[in-house]
Amino acid sequence: MAKAKKSKVPDTTIVRNKKASHDYFVEDTFEAGMALEGWEVKSLREKKVQLVDSYVVLKDGEAFLIGCRINPLNTASTHVVADPDRTRKLLLHKKELATLFNSVQQKGHTCIVTKLYWKGHMVKCQVALAKGKKDHDKRDTIKDREWNIQKQRLVRQQNR
After folding, report:
1. Contact (Cβ atoms closer than 8 angstroms) between residue 68 and residue 88
2. Helices (H), the chain
3. PROSITE patterns of this UniProt entry (predicted)?
4. Backbone dihedral region for residue 135 (phi beyond 0: left; psi -120 to 50: alpha; all else: beta)
5. pLDDT by residue (tens digit) across 77-108?
6. pTM for the whole structure
7. Of 5, 21, 109, 160, which one has the greatest count of Cβ atoms within 10 A?
């Protein structure tokens, strides 16, 4: 029996927003830090987070993450009031914020969160500049994905 190879790079992804790639055309991505509280970091280590309906709001020269739900652990301290749906500040450079502001205002794009991941001991958030898909675009994407799977099956059968 052959053993499966272990990858040398560990997977640092906490959570991925799969619905984002279905609903949007992702055009550009940025890496942002997050201002978190202690209990939130502990919950992220346990992967108790949901990104499904989260989005980024840009106002007053700052970026905020809204709709991200981080569920507190049962062992959280009793003197800390844990609000799982609070608005979290995203930490971006001024040039990146300016790019996001201009794109969202002029081109009709939106900012979404595609994934949360660890970078060293810090939590990073991948913010994407995206444009919404229409229903026919979603159907085309599904057709292309199914056709690619079918092609792989046909090639495998030919090589046997």
Report:
1. yes
2. 18-23, 38-45, 94-107, 135-159
3. SSRP (PS01317)
4. alpha
5. 677 778 888 899 999 999 999 999 988 887 76
6. 0.76
7. 109
